[in-house]
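**Tokenised fold:**
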Amino acid sequence: MTRLVFWLPAVNPYWRDRFNALAADGEVDFECWFNRHLDPDRSWDVHPQSMAFDHTFIGKSGDQHAWLFVHDLWSAYRRANPSTIFTFHHEPKLWPVWLHRLRGRNVALYALMTWDSWVKRSRVKEVAKRLFFSAATSVLTPGPQSDAYTAKYGAKNIYRLHHAVDVQRLGAASHERSASEALRLLYVGRMIKGKGVRMLTRALEPVLRGHPSVSVRFVGDGPLRQELEEWAERTGPQVEVSAFIQSEGMADVYSAADVLLFPTEGDPYGLVVDEALAAGVPVVSSDCAGDIAWRLEGGRGWVLPVGDEVAWTRLLNQIATDRGQLAGMSANALKFSAGHGVDRWVAELKTWLEVSENDGYKDRELH
């Protein structure tokens, strides 16, 4: 019997690095199942050779036929015979996990809060969430806001499992950051509706006109990229739009930035915030990012009302006028991020397994 199976929709560089670290640690018997290799909506590139852990792709071809998916899933399940399956609740192709729960075995849900602006609510979905969260033997979350979100739907055994980023590589970027008279703003992420990029361009226009030494770089891809490129061409050399950059190259991007802009209208979390803080880059975020308040408190950034164009313009003008505060905020970000890498993720995962198994998944919270 395999102690733990991670069953995820697809692999990405962040989960790959965590699983590699868990495999290197060697204390947890686990394997990973992925419904597909990569998320078709993302540009991440994860080579199978870089995945140094036992893994299976359920259905070997992209959009699997139902019979092939069921065949591969049953084959993987019968071979692994898992005690606990760690998965998400939002994708229907993951819902067969509840057959595992009906066998009296353990299901752990990793849960992030969602926002009305990104997710179309329905009575069926609300009922399903109440059923799933209350039936799960464990619910793991990255922060207190997600705790409250899952508790609202009946989750009882809530455990902390923070996200993890490459703090060593990103921390080194802070030492490579060159002094600049300019204020270098940065946006990293998908260029799609719901990310707040249109509001951001409107908020930036008076800032760029009033402060010639302010520049902004957009890094990413998506259907709004051409629109951003056209805006950049009209605005002038203060604006740069760059193609998507794989995670391994992001340290160089953060080393050339002073402030990250995260105007999202509803991200469940936003790992770019953690990356920026680990690189010593303060963050301006909307208040519609999951678990954002505790990440930016303590002088690590600012949280603004979502979509408040006037507030964004006012704050960015203020930062452009008085940049002296950024050095202290950068130091706060680095101090906060120390130890927030994959080693902590591995330690928290092992603590969850030990406590939950020893307590028989009785009502208990671990934070």
